Each structure stands twice: as C-alpha cells, then as structure tokens.
Amino acid sequence: MTTVERSACAKVILCGEHAVVYGRPAIALPLPTLRARARIETGSCAFTIVAPDVGVTVSLWRHSRRTRNPLARAALAAFELIGQRPPRATLTVTSDIPVGANLGSGAAVSVAIGRAIAAHFDRALLPEEVSQMAYEVEQLHHGSPSGIDNTVIAYEQPVWFARGKPLELLDAKIGAGLPLVIADTGIATPTRIPVGDVRAAWERDRDRIEGYFDAIAALVHRSREALERNDLAQLGHAMNANHALLQQLGVSCPELDALCDAARAAGALGAKMSGGGRGGNMIALARDVAHAEALREALLRAGAKRVFT
Length: 309
Ligand code: MEV
Hints:
Blueprint: E1 3-15, E2 26-42, E3 48-51, E4 56-59, H1 70-82, E5 89-95, H2 105-120, H3 127-141, H4 148-155, E6 159-161, E7 168-169, H5 172-176, E8 180-184, H6 192-204, H7 206-229, H8 232-249, H9 254-265, E9 270-274, E10 281-285, H10 289-301, E11 306-308
Parallel strand pairs: 3-5
Antiparallel strand pairs: 1-2, 2-5, 2-6, 3-4, 6-7, 8-10, 8-11, 9-10
C-alpha cells in the first residue's frame, strides 16, 4: 500500500470582493494555518473519494468528466491534466476550513485533491495548473467566479488580482505581518446568492452599481499603498469605507455589521465583511498582536462562532 497526502490553505479577501467579479482589482491573502487535506491510499477498490467530516462517499466511476459533483469533478480534472487513469485507491478529504464561511473551503479542497493525485504519480502541478483546475470546480458553485479564490490558494501567497490581467504576487510578508483577526458569523451562505443578487442589481441599474465598484477599486489601490508603507491606520480606514460600500451593495447582514461594530468599539483600526457576505466571515485590523487577542475576546462576546488570528 502506498500513501500520499497533500494540502492547500484557506484564504481571506482583504478588499475588493464583488467588484473583482466585474474586472476591478482585489487583494487576497492566504491563511496557511487553516488547511484542507487530501490523502490517497492504494487498495483493492475502484477509485473512491470519501469526505468523513461531511459524510460523503463518491465512487468516481459513476461520474463523467462533466459531473456537477465538486469532488468528482476536481479528481477527474486532475487525472485529465496529468494524463493518467484513476488507480485502485481511496482519496480521503479532511479540512479545518469552515464550509460556507467565505474562507475558500471549496477551492482549497480542489487544490488539495489536484496536488494529491499528481503526487501519487510523482508529479507536482504548477500553481497556474492547479489554479485553473480548481477554477473549473469553482464555476459549479457560482456561475461567474472571478478566480481570485483558486488563485490565492494555489499560489499560497498574497495576490493583487484583476480579472483578465496578469497576476501580481505581492510580498509574502504582507499577509504574515498583518495583525488581522477573522471572525465567523457561523452563517453559511453559498457565494452564488450574494453574487447573484449583485448581478440582478447591476442589470437593473448599471450606472449606480458600477459607481460602487469604482469606489471600491479606489479603496483597493489605497489599501495597497497602505500595505506597502505599513500604514495600518490608512489600511483600517479603507477597510471601514469598503465595508460601507458593501453594505450599500446589499451583501452585508446584521450579524456581519454587529461584528464590525464590536471590533471597532474594541479599538480595531478597521473592520469589514470579507468574501461573498450575507454571513460568512469578517476581518478586523488590530493595532498589534497583543491587541488582536483583545479583539478576539470582543468578537467572541459579540457572537462570533469562531475567531482566527
Ligand atoms: C468570493 O471569495 C469573492 C467574490 O468576489 C466572488 C468572486 O470573486 O468570485 C464575492
């Protein structure tokens, strides 16, 4: 019996979500301490994927290449990419990343599956290969993903991402050095719901919604300058303003707003929802690592189900 295991990190959107679907830039950071894992053990049965955390078992032979099952789709895309057939083996998927929390759980599982399948055949996929493979699966979750989630997870490095433009990898120290606190509302909302609502609003009133996107893009540029100068006060300011624009776009919710208010009341330099919204997570910028601990306590008191620092 042989065993290989590979993993992939979670992600958080620092700024620019939703507008990024419409070509504006956004910044995303990897969260290396939260991971999805895929382990392949050879055996006697046809290739089977099991995800014990969610009670799912998938027999790959039942699925075609165009399957809408995300686990099977990721595996079949990976086998196609490396030009191999599924071996007799079991692939077990486990993850620390909460599902539906906008932390990239789906993309991380796809990337981990791709890496494990390639490793089983002594191959390593390039970040752009595994990113493209995971993007195909992301399209099952919501029709027009920007591609930012699969990109930041595949590269495991902070990214400046603009759809259709060359990817810019930012200094790896940027994310690692930020005293960010991430709080989960515990409300699992599929990204396709707020993304679909923004699309409907955009179709009704393009000028107004494009105005919000332009204002968000200006804040993303300001956030990048702040990151490059390590100006946490300016970054926090941009985060607060970005949250206000996301509220106007209709993708926040009372629980996210309450956590942002609680973080600011506890002295956060800035706070905003992160990712698709209507639940999921918010991020708060602390003054330093010690203050991040105080924010963690304040967010838990304000109802956060989980807090990551
Ligand atoms: C999801 O992490 C971020 C959104 O902008 C959707 C996307 O970029 O595909 C809401």
